[in-house]
Automatic annotation (TrEMBL):
This is Ceramide kinase isoform X2. It comes from Pundamilia nyererei. The gene is LOC102212422. GO terms for molecular function: ceramide kinase activity. InterPro entries: ATP-NAD_kinase_N (IPR017438), CERK_C (IPR045363), CERK_PH (IPR057465), Diacylglycerol_kinase_cat_dom (IPR001206), Lipid_Phosphate_FormReg (IPR050187), NAD/diacylglycerol_kinase_sf (IPR016064). Residues 122-271 form the DAGKc domain. GO terms for cellular component: membrane. PROSITE patterns: DAGK. Keywords: Kinase, Transferase. The keyword Transferase applies. GO terms for biological process: ceramide metabolic process.
Amino acid sequence: METDLRLESSLWIGNKRYRAVLTGWHLKWTEADKKNGDKKTVSVPVAEVVGVENGRVEILPQKSVEDTDKDFTVFYIKRSRSRSTYGLLWSLGRTQFSCPSRVLRDQWTNHLRTALKTHSPLRPHRLLVFINPFGGKKKGREIYHSLVAPLFELAGISSHVIVTERANQARDHLLKKDLTGFDGVVCVGGDGMFSEVLHGLIGRTQQEAGLCETDPAVTLQPCPLHIGIIPAGSTDCVCYATVGVIDPVSSALHIIIDSQPLDVCSVHHASTLVRYSVSLVGYGFYGDVLAESEKHRWMGPLRYDYSGTVVYLSNRSYAGIVQYLPADPLLSSPKDKTRCLSGCNVCSRSTERLFPHTSDSGSLYSSHFSQYSNDSEGEWVSVEGRFRCVSITCMSSSCARSPLGLSPSAHLADGTGDLILVWDTHPLSFLKFLYRHTSTQDQFDLPFVEVHRVKAVRFSLPDGREEEVHEGIGELNRAIEEREYVDTVSRNGSQQQLAQSVVERETMNEHKTVASILCGLCCKKTPAVSVWNCDGEILPFTEIFCRIHGQLVRLYARGIEDGAAMQNCSQESDKNKSRCITYK
């Protein structure tokens, strides 16, 4: 119930008079000169007001200001459905109000700004921004300066911008430089850029806490700085799975308005940290596709389709031992048909469970992992056999091609991951499993597929397989070194060096393409081991240990909003002939 009335008066929008009311939580304006049945009311939550400016102001596509004494402009979040995505597009709504006097204009702007500070105290004030100018279509700079920076300025956010010149520059900066005064870090790029920021912030936090992050048993300290993503890469899976759309304006508005916690999976080998992951850690098919695609980087994004086809036709499966620590099945299930949307009840209850004595997820983080460390070995479940693929994901891992993702009911911040086991099966059956990722059919409703909600996973090779690993790992390391060299040239080398490198690689790959296809399709001997695909990076180890760290970082995002619910609400409103438009 809204009893905190702040301000009420008659205002003009264009040539129409409205009765405007500012309460503690909402700004509303209703047409004043029409009969009650025909009156139109617009209601905007104060928490979704982006900014208030004196005069008649426009921000996008270009900023323009008409300084008038009696006018002010309110900017807020507007939503619309996207035909190609599950989530909702956010855009910048704008309404210009005219007042009878300058005194009343100043009253309105002051009250609105005070309400913003009161109801949105956790909005960022200063951000460190990293732009990858080489990612995706190489439009990172343009996207930030033309679409994002004006929104940050409107919201009163100052930013320090760094355009990266080499791989891992963002990670190294976060590990070594002074970060005092920043509320968060924003990456303008793709999943690779996000991974750099993730590793840098987690590593910096553990350094300052005096913790050894390479120890798989250590209790990691949550990161105080939040992470924001502006999609501008060739792959933006993390953005898609947390916001629901690939749209720089939507992501910028999410950064301004809200944040939410995010689980992180640490991947270890022989008690040493290998990488952190928030999306996919995949062995078998997904690892083979990534490894194959590294041989054909000259093809651009098409290399993934080509490599997927080659790997599928190779009809491979791999022996392995999978051990996992199940999560509490009473809390949630990967088969319960729920989706992790904005305001998710499962994640909210998990926050209370992980940090029961505080609203600050950082202060009592050890309580969660004291429970983890007391888990007895008897609770681990072990399975052995031949697998088409083994996947671990901390989120749905949805993307444009797979709108529901690898695990549609996975949660962003419940302290668990989903383990997906696809046993060796007929090629056509495996094709059915892959195809279901592109539709709304249940990919887990197949006899050769298992899915488990877990807190930790171990993967090892059966006895006698270890010696066969070394040859494959050596070849893999050479491929990784070659790719890193090309990445270095593309970021630091001259155009002549880059062109020469590309030509040489194209010539080499043209000669290898036919042989590669024939080898993949005709070789009778299946490779002894696959490789791990960790958020798009190849891991040079086969036997790994994965552990889920609940709510280790916070992401500047509200979460995916349910577009279907919005549509149903609109249909119900039309049915009841309602004239109220609520932007919330």
